[in-house]
Amino acid sequence: MKLLATDMDGTFLRDDKSYSEEFNDLYKQMLKQGIQFVIASGNQYEALACKFDEEIKNDLYYLCENGTKIVYQGKTLYKKALKKEDAKEILDILKQDQECMLVVSGDKHAYISKSFENKKDFISLFMKNVQFVESYDDIEDDILKFSIASFDDQMEQRIEKIQKQLKPHLKLVTTGNVWFDIFYKDVNKGTTLTHLLEILKIKPEEAGAFGDQMNDYEMLQTVKYGYAMANAMPPVKEVAYQVIDSNENDGVILKIKEILKGNY
């Protein structure tokens, strides 16, 4: 094994957003065995890097914003932004629904309407680099994706309605219990992980990945060793090399221990 990539929410992180204190020691062991550790998340870079200790966070590669961006040591190695006409079309669709919270994920910042400033505590769990705006139309940035938080019980109906309006080259994926994202169909954690493997000259059969949601689906198929959490969505489990313990029971940590012993 030369590389391990992990999703964060529902996978590496427990439900309270914490992770095992054993990780730092296991990370050192992974380095000794030549295993590169990669964070692959729908969240932004700043919100991911701050989860780790100073001596670790700059060694990690971050596939952030659902694979629309690769960051290493604070520098962007790759990004796939939406064309302006596509971004405008998506925005026009999403602005029709005032009940959910829209996040416009840009290269520089995440942008949220000032009407949701009362949700700052919730927002801070997922984003650290946020600008609250009067109007989404005034944003001047490369748009990577759109994220929607559905706080009511209408998420399925909302997704169905939006999907019918999207052009064929765009896709909608669930990324958490209340979140779903919209970006290009040909971009996902899997395609971006493939790009990173090529940069690092690592073969897919020398790599593993952990995930739980549909935005992890392609990533688990990109590598030989795709590990689905016990709490994963059924389709994710179906394509996995192995189903491991849940995020609440530190399934990723337990599997890393096995991998370090040569038990893939």
UniProtKB/TrEMBL annotation:
Keywords of the record: Hydrolase
InterPro entries on file: Cof (IPR000150), HAD-like_sf (IPR036412), HAD-SF_hydro_IIB (IPR006379), HAD_sf (IPR023214)
A GO molecular-function term, please? magnesium ion binding
Q: Which GO cellular component does the record give, naming just one?
A: cytosol
UniProt name for this protein:
Hydrolase
Q: To which species is this protein native?
A: Faecalibacillus faecis
What broad taxonomic lineage does this protein's source fall under? Bacteria, Bacillati, Bacillota, Erysipelotrichia, Erysipelotrichales
